[in-house]
């Protein structure tokens, strides 16, 4: 029995044929473009946008009394981010200032004592001269009376009186010299004390500078223009020195892309080569860049536990080499790219070489 086709069957068959044909043509065009892309570009989708994301670290400990930023908020260099209770630090500053004032007062006392002892030493020195003159005169008298006593022109009592006076003058002379030596020794002792005290004042002033720095550290400011990350602190929270309080994305530095190319793809890549890439978030927007460096080692070599292929269980795996690409774009385009975004990178093959 001969099979009959209805008009509907013929229409469906025709439509199906057209659809299949269009699909085949579309697949052929897509395959052509894909093959052309692989022929013309070294491609990878293992690439992400990067820029400096730095931690905001506390250099002073204490209770937070104010938080001046919100998540994702743009900030300017010098803007206050956090304020820490600084009362303990200001008390340390006051104590150190008081210690400096006390040491300086002690230094002034020693300087006054030095002046007094110098006067005493001058008086003792003059006393030495006077005692020496009396001793010299009395020695002459003793010599004269000694000759007179030998000639029996003076009595023994007169000679003994002159001898006694000579001994007294000699004792006075020795006492004057000892007083002068003691005064000089005291001056040297005071000078040594002043040296120690001056060193202590220098130490206290350095400590004061440190304490004042601690007071400044209780106000945490933005180190550069940027955008704040997630907020994890609140008023009343106790923080320690060195604690990470937030993250800030640096707006003052360039953005770049790290593209992890297979080792078989980088043979013809050079620093300065132009690059095109497309972000997954903006598939219709093309970005340009420039290769600025190629990693000196594969990515796996920088891992915590680098692979050891000397065990005998070696399986060859194609390695990835990070390629750093500077983003060449206007501010409006740069603002579109966020840290960590995935991108597809295209490095044209056979770029014209110069030099």
Automatic annotation (TrEMBL):
Compartment annotation: Membrane
Primary localization: membrane
Superkingdom of source: Bacteria
Regions annotated as coiled coil: 86-113, 159-193
Keyword S-adenosyl-L-methionine: no
Pfam families in alphabetical order: Beta-barrel_RND_2, BSH_RND
Domain Multidrug resistance protein MdtA-like barrel-sandwich hybrid: 56-250
Transmembrane domains' residue ranges: 12-39
Membrane topology listed for this record: Single-pass membrane protein
Classification via SUPFAM superfamilies: HlyD-like secretion proteins
Keywords, alphabetical: Coiled coil, Membrane, Transmembrane, Transmembrane helix
CusB-like beta-barrel domain residues: 256-297
PANTHER family given in the database record: MEMBRANE FUSION SUBUNIT OF EMRAB-TOLC MULTIDRUG EFFLUX PUMP, TRANSPORT PROTEIN COMB
Protein name as annotated: HlyD family secretion protein
